[in-house]
Amino acid sequence: MWVSRELPADLQLRQLEQQLGQLDLHWGSPDIPSIQRERSPGGFAELFIQPDAVRRLLAAARIGQVDDAPLAVLEGPLHAHLLQRQQAAQRLTRYPPPQLEQLLFLDNEVLTPLLQLLADSPDASRWGEAEQDNLRYLNGLARSLGYQLVRHQSANQHFLLLQPDDGQDAPPWGIHVLRIGSSAPQIVEVPRAGSELNTLTLGIRLFEQLQARALLIASVAADADPLGRADVIHPQARHSLFNLLHQVLLREAGDAPLLVSQVRGLGQPVPDGYGSLLSFGNGLQLGEHVAPARRALLAALAGLGLAPLEVAGQPLTAGYEVGHNIQQRYLAASRHKEFAILWVPPQARRAFGDDPQSRQFLALGIETLPVSLAQHLASQPLLRQPLPAEVLRRLQHYVHTRDIIALRQLQRDYQLQRLLIPQKDQALLQLATAEGILAIVNLQPLGAELIVQPADLPLQPLLSRFLDRRAFLLQFGDAR
Amino acid sequence: MRLLGRLLLALLTLALVVPLSLHLQGLLTAPDIPPPVRELGLDSRSSAVYMLDDQQWLTFPLISQTDRVKVLSNLSTEPGTSAELPLQYSLLWQVLDDDQQILAQGSWTHQTRLPPPLSVDGQRVPRNLYARDAALVASAQSFILQLDQLPRAAYLRLRHQSLDAPLLGVAARFYYEERISPQRAAILWERLSQQRREQLAADVIYPPALVLAQERVNLLLRQWQPAGPLETAVPQRRLYYVDDQDDSRPLQARLAGGRLYIAPDRLGVLPISASGDYRLQFQPQDDDTLPAELTLTHYSAQQAEPQRSQLALPEGQGAPLQHIEAGLLLVQSSRPGWLDIRARDDSSLLPEPQHLRARRIQAGQPLRFALSPDGQHNAHLPLRLDLRLWTEGTPLPASQPLLAHYRILDSAGELLDEGELHGMAGVSLFDRISSTPHMADLSDPLSFYLRLPARTAQLEISSTQALLASAWTRPADLPHRTRVPQDYYAWLRASDAQPGWFSLSPPDAAALDEALLHIQSRPPERDPQLLAGRYQWQALAPQRPARGARLLLPVEPGDTPRDSALPGYFVPLASGRQSLELQMPGAHRLLRPQLIWLRDSSAPFSLRLRLNGHEQQHELAGRRGSIALPASAPGRHRLELQASTAGRWLLNYRWPQPGSYQLHLGYALQQQPLQFSLQKRNGEQRLIGARFHSSGAAGVSTRIRLRLQPAGLHTGPSHDWSYHERIYTLVPDAGQAGRGYLLDRQQGQVSTGLPLFFALGDDLAPGPLQVSFERLDGAPGYLLLYEILPGEHARVDSFTEDLP
B262: which of A332, B368, B385, B745 lies 20 to 30 Å off by Cα? Predict the structure, then answer.
């Protein structure tokens, strides 16, 4: 601040300094001519504001009353919570986009301090009163915009959720998950959870498989706003909470490498037996070396049964390059960041969705049980018998065609049960006789893999493989 | 040596670039700007592009050890090429070292489209165009190569693969990534013009003034710099891009906004599950300043006829809150647009969109469905095939013949049966292709039912028309379960309702062979003859042994009896002296009116009746009963009624008033099934209905099994399907239970009628048909089976169930 002669009479210097962060006071006049300065008889001051201070000033203008209600703490499977929230958001047909100053406020006052807190105190189990106070305060600030911070824990994993507030007419700006504690330098984004079937379930699985740092979800349908402002990957939707979080996470990561993967729905099958298409925004890497983050992504996708074909100019992948994606384009303002789009074909996405045929089971009187597969199999006798060839054909016919006749035929010879695995969001069919369980079939498998437990090996590792890869069939013995 | 080489190369490039830029300046002079841009004064940008060849390589030097290079290309096509078509072209690339050795190579296939032209002052202007060339230019495509692992890379060269008509050529631009130091980047920002800063920071969420220092440096650290090729005799041109003046309208037309598209030729179906106050919202697709009018048709379980009303929306605004009863609301609009319906708390009531995947059939492209690999058990396996006409963007005529051929094959591919599927298909007022809801190019489905022969493994459908097909199966031995009434009505149906048919997916296919349909529930169909009251109602008697009982049932509001039914209607009569009219239109004979009493006590009482001066004295007892009055001519009479007890008195031969009853003969459905013998005649429409009057209290269910035993079965194809075994679960609610009386008993009340709808379709062979009703469990009650003969006569629901 340049002050000529004396300070203006009513200027509250201390208050101004608080709002700006730092104030350098110069007595004298800058080299810029000013007719007001020359003509003013009394005190005259000129304030030159740095961009960072403008951000502070604008953001601070929004802070009103802050109630520091304690954070809600949720337990149970993360995906169940997110899917339930998504179902509510999906039906919204109105999308008031956030204003720039609201985003600035969230950035400066909530997100940046929150990421700082998570970086400084990564171990949630050691959080003391200071951290709790801090979180309560940040939650209070978020709530002034209709958003809330929620803690979520399941199986030794801790998350902070930024989600629309329950108690008021909250804006539908998506639900966003930050992992507390150590995480891989990966971010998973689901930009069209509201319109591309099952991409959310897939995104959650990938987030878990990668142990990623954050999961960003744009909940409302991309077409909820007639002006296109709900389609968060579109340049017209630059001012979205989804995009803000993307930019803040990349910015706050500084020069450290980070790979952002967006999960998108593909409208057609992927050629040559690949599970998905993967396109990288940085283009085609020539040479042998693959960056660790890319390697981790490829491994995670293989683990989910979605081993990808990289988009590298093949005729069949034309049109699936990263293209004009606004999150990709922000990478120019960051360093050592990478961006990828995972395109998942319809059949694989169906494998990650609800079993649409539940009414078939209801009609045939086949019981549905939610179970933990390991515990369920441990409590029942398992039959080490090969499956008759015609039974295998009937099962294959069923998973390909959903023909209820195949189920009805199986029902004549076997006791059928439908098993729901809530932890993995999968539906299985159990074939049993009076003596015990003969086989477990994934009702929405990815591919046709048969897993047979050798007699001398424990079942547990095979169960994980069967579920993670969404294999077709699990048997307990030699199938020859 | 290498450095020297690069220096020479750079000099060479410079030598090329300077005259080139002079040449470019020349290009920028007025005569070379494309005429529409110049004449309409449009904002445009332009770049120099190099025309690629399919034989000769075009070589670009890799300047200053760049890590990444980008190739942008624009395909040009012959004038008149369709903007709808996706266009593909391939570029071949090679990375070479200083010695022209190939370090890496490949091809990149791009898919592009011609961008829709802009409309400026009524003139259509292409978004991309050359100055003196009528060729159409597709949207630019790019690919990036990362060269950081190829330190010896010195050149990139490009050509395109040969192009077939209508593709004409490919223009390319080449960029390399230039890096500067962070220090220089920090200073450079301050020197940039505001416009350049805005360009650079366009993808940062904040305006340039609020971009953080770290982001500003990053934005400048790496810059894409254009470079020209080494070759001198390269055809080079200037490509103009016209800036979009107003991009909002096409977007608006594209986006459904999660709402329902309706138009004069597309109805919106809104199931209203609970009565309440709702607000209809309508956004016209085109000009939202013009008024729109909505035509509403409301169907409910109570109303015989749908209620129609008009709703004018001035300037396309939302309607005020209005009370809407539970039921199905059909909305038609005077102009195309998007519909939404919201409750008082602003939550949307639009139904979850119902989607159906259907597979394409066209000339030379038959469709095969695989059946369960258990041939010998597949005899008489029910299969339903839904076929629709689809004209892909061309409006479909109101009605058009549909013809397809089916072949049933065994596992060896041997033909078991074949035949034709035909009918008249009408353009659908309800269903559309999901992605193009504004196009009336889809017909309603024609359903064909087949009972497949033994050994069936495949069903093949072919047609010379463009059709969409979906197939459904159901186990022949699976009873069809219906909960009454919630499964009957779209607005009450829960997601766990049992569908009659279960979809059979064809093998996975490319997206082009499949269409996603957005389908809607249909309103209940009612026969116009029935609605007009022109039908005969005839009760059907079961075979012995069966026990009948007279049921006194309340007349529902809206029931208007036909004239000949007046003897069966009993109207409240007050105590004391009164004048009343006995009616029987068309009858000249004497009438024998009956008086029914309903009391709470069974104690004896005396009743004195004086009709036109003739007095009758009765000593009676019991809670309910009836006596005959003296024969009287139709017309006005004086009647005096005096009783020693309180009670309700009902007299027939009068038009119903509130509180009136109807007398029916029902048959006890207790332990033994009730058997009815009917005759199924060829081609004759028979509407058979049944009603169950439960003796149970409100909330107590009864399960009834219905079995049809026809003389024989048609193997199809037929247009109807009759379920041979159905199980109904009937639960009277508080408004239904205990409202009727067993007239001949002193105890016992029954519910109002719970309908059991079923069809006798053309899949049943003519001849004797046995129909049996069996109570499986739950409260006993009384059953009425009746037949409606359209022609002359009170309202009955004829009902078409929604298919799944």
Answer: B385
